[in-house]
Amino acid sequence: MLPESAPAAPPEKMEIVPLSRAGELPAKGRETASTWGRRLLIAAVLVWFAALILVPGAALVRQAFANGWEPLAAALAEPEVKRAFVMSVGLALIATVVNTVFGIVMALVLVRQRFFGRTLIDGIVDLPFAVSPIVAGLMLIVLYGPESPIGGWLEARGFQVIYALPGMVLATMFVTVPFVVRELSPILRELGEEYEQAAYTLGAGRWRTFRSVTLPSIRWGVAYGVTLTVARCLGEFGAVLVVSGNVVGRTQTATLYIADGIDSFHPEGAYAASLVLAAASFLLLVGMDLLRHRLEGAREVEP
Amino acid sequence: MSAGPYVDVDEQSGTGRASLATRPSLSYHRGAWPAPWGEAGRPGNGEKTVAIEVRGLSKKYGSFQAVDDVSFSVQSGQLVALLGPSGSGKSTILRTIAGLETADSGSVMLTGEDATDLPVQRRGVGFVFQHYALFRHMTVRENIGFGLKIRGVPRAEVRRRADELLDLIQLGGYANRYPSQLSGGQRQRIALARALAPRPKVLLLDEPFGALDAKVRDELRTWLRRLHDEVHVTSLFVTHDQREAFEVSDQIVVLADGKVQQIGPPQTLYEQPANPFVAGFLGAINVLPLGSLKAGSVGGGPSDWLDRPPAEHAEAYVRPHDLDVHATRDGKPYWPAIVERITPLGGVVRLDLRIAPDRPLHIEAPRNRALRLGFEVGDEVYVTPRHLNVYDRVRGSFDPVDVHRAIGLTLENGAGI
Fold first, then answer.
1. Mean pLDDT in residue range A121-125
2. Cβ–Cβ of B127/A203 closer than 8 Å?
3. Which of A138, A193, A242, B350 fits a 20 to 30 Å CA distance from B265?
4. CA of B187: which chain A residue's CA is closest?
5. Which residues neighbour B342 within 8 Å (Cβ) at sequence distance 6 or greater?
C-alpha cells in the first residue's frame, strides 16, 4: 500500500543561492570537516612552496644585499663577471636560434612525414632531458676531444672544439634540443594539414605557406619553446663545465663563474651573479606564463 | 537557359534570374586583371564542354581499395554531387582532382588540360573543406584576399575583389572580423568566397555542410544552389546526405566501395536506380518478394504484365510513397497486410505493416488521407503498388515497372490512399 501522504514532513524551504556565491553556503556538519581539510591542504601546499622556493630565494636576495648596493654593483662591474655574462648570453643566443630553426623543422618532419625510424627518433628526441648534462659533456669530449680521431683531425687544422666556444655551443644545444620540438609537436598534430592544404589550393607554394599559414599558427608555441630554451641555456652548468675547461675570461659562463666564486672563497661575486641569473629566470617565467595564456587562448578557438 | 560557366553575371541580370541580393555588378570571370589560370579551357558562350574528367582513377591505402577504376565527367557550369556512404572513396576522388592526393592510376582532366601530374597550386581549383580551414590569424578580408595576394595582385584590387565577394556572400560588414568571431555557417560562406576569389576553373567542396547544425545546413544548401545559379562555376561536392545531393545538384554520381554505381540527374536516379544499392541509398525503400504480390481482377499479376515471366526469387523494390493502402480489394494487384503501428510525422503518417512474419512494410501517407481511412492497429489491409522496381538477383537486372500503366490504368483512380 502506498502511503497517502508521501512527503510526511513539509519540504524545507530551499534557499536559492546564486552560483557565484555557492562557495559561501553556510557550512554544516560533515561540510565543516571537509572545509577544514581543504584549508589544511592549502596551508600545507603553501608551507611546502615557501620552504622550497620562497625562503631560499629570499635568503639569496638578503645575502646579495647584505652589505648594501655598493658591493653588489662592484662585484657585477668586475670584467670577468661581465665576460662571463656575455659568454652566457652569447651561448644562449646561438643555441636558441639554431635549436629554434632546427626544432621547427624537426617537429614538422616528425609530425607530418612518415619514414622508417620515425618513432625511434621521436623517442630519442627526449634523450637530452633524460641524460645527465655531465654525461652529455663527456660524450662530446669523447667524440671531439684532442685524443679522439675527429678532434685530433680538427685540431691539426687549427680548429679547437673542446675547451673552446664550439664545444660549449654544442653542449648547450645538446641539452636544449627537445624544448621547441616537444612544444610544437602536439600543436602541429592538433593543427592538422588542412590549413596548409587550403593555402596550396589557393596557389601558395610550400615556403609561402610555411611563412603565411604554418608559422603564424604555431607562433605562440614557438615563443614558448624559445623561452624555455633560453632559460635552460642560461642555467646550463654540467655539460658546459665538462667541455669548457672553465678558462677565466675566455670560456667561463655565468654559472661557471658562480661555481668558481663559491669554490675560491670569493662569494660576493657569486651572490651577485646568482641574483642576476635568478632575476632573469623570474622574468622569463613571467613571460612564459603570459605566453602560456596566449597559447591556451589560441587553442580554444578552432575555426 | 543553358548558360555556360563563364557567362558573366552582368549579362544575366536582364534574364529575370533570381538575384541573390541587390548589389553592384559582380564579375566572376571578367576582371580588370588577367585571369590567373590563363584563358585555357574557356569555352564559347552556351557551348557545353567538359570541365572535369576523371578516367580510370584507382587508389589503394594498404590493402584497402579506396577508389576502384572510377570514371566520370562534369559538364561546365554544372553542380554535381559525389554521393556515397563513408568509406565509398568520394573524398579521396575529390582530393585527387584537387591534387591533394595522388592516385595509383588514372587521369584527371581539368577544362581539357591533363592535370594528373600538375601540383595542386597550378590546377586552378577552389577547395572548400568541411571544417572551413580559415586562417585564424587573418581577418575575413585577408582570408578572402589570400589567393590573390600571393599572385601579386595589387593591394587595392585585392581589397576590391574581397569586398565584392563579401557582398556576394552577404557578409559585407564582416571584413575586419576574425574567423573565431563568426558562426559556423558564416565561416563556411567565407571559405567559399576565399575559394572563389582567384576565379578557379572548378570549385570542389568536401562535405561543405557536414560540420553545421541541421537548420544552418538547410539554409546554406539553398543558398549554395542560388549562388551557383549566379556564379556558374563548375562545382563538384562530396556528401553522404542524399537529401543534400537532391536539393543542390544537377547531377549525382553515386559511389559505393570505391566504384561508381550510377550517374544521372537526381530524379532519374530515384525513379530508375541501376541497382539495389542506389535504390536503397537514395531513400527509404521496401523490398518484397514479387511472387507474393497477388493478382487483381484488373490486369492480372506480375507474370501477366512483365515482358518475361519473373523469376521465382525476383524482388519488388517499392518506395513508401508508391504504395496505396485500401481497406478492401479494389481489383489491382495487392499484398495483404496487417497494420502494426501508426506514427503521425507531421504532414505525413507512417504506417508500419507486415505482409509476412519476416516481411515488414513501411508506407507514408498524407496525413488527411490517412485520417480519412481511419485505420487501427491490427486491421487487415490491402497494399497495392503504383510503381516498383523488379530486381532479379541472378541476372542482376533492375527494371522499373509503372504498375498502373501495366495493368491498363492511365490515371490514378483515387481509390485508397
1. 88
2. no
3. B350
4. A303
5. B349, B350, B351, B352, B370, B375, B376, B377
Q: Which of B80, B78, B59 is nearest to B68 (CA)?
A: B59
**In whole angstroms, what is the distance from residue B124 CA to residue B103 CA?**
18
Residue with cell 633524460: A130
> Per-residue pLDDT for B10 more than 50?
no
Alpha-carbon A302 to chain mean position: 27
Q: Using a CB cutoff of 8 Å and minimum separation of 24, what contacts does A129-133 make?
A: A129/A178, A132/A238, A133/A171, A133/A175, A133/A236, A133/A237, A133/A238, A133/A239, A133/A240
Residues in chain B: 417
CA atoms within 13 A on the CB side of B198: 32
Task: Determine the Cα–Cα distance for residues A225 and A176; give it in Å rounded to an integer.
Answer: 10
Q: How far apart are CA A258 and CA A160, in angstroms?
A: 25
User: Between B126, B132, B135, which is nearest A201 by CB?
Assistant: B126
Residue A193: the pLDDT is 92
Q: What is the pLDDT of residue A17?
A: 47
* Alpha-carbon gap: B185 to the closest alpha carbon of chain A (Å): 11
CB distance B334 to B382 below 8 Å: yes
Across the interface, whether the CB atoms of B146 and A202 are under 8 A apart is answered yes
pTM of model > 0.80? no
Q: How many CB atoms lie within 10 A of CB A53?
A: 10
What number of H helices and E strands is found in chain B?
12, 19
Tell me whether 0.90 is exceeded by the ipTM: no
Determine the pLDDT at residue B43: 42
Q: What is the pLDDT of residues A258-273, one digit of tens each?
A: 888 888 877 888 888 9
Longest pairwise C-alpha distance within chain B: 78
Contact status, residue B335 vs residue B293, Cβ threshold 8 Å: yes
Q: Say how far apart CA B199 and CA B379 lie, in whole Å.
A: 62
Question: For B127, which of A198, A205, A303 is closest by C-beta distance?
Answer: A198
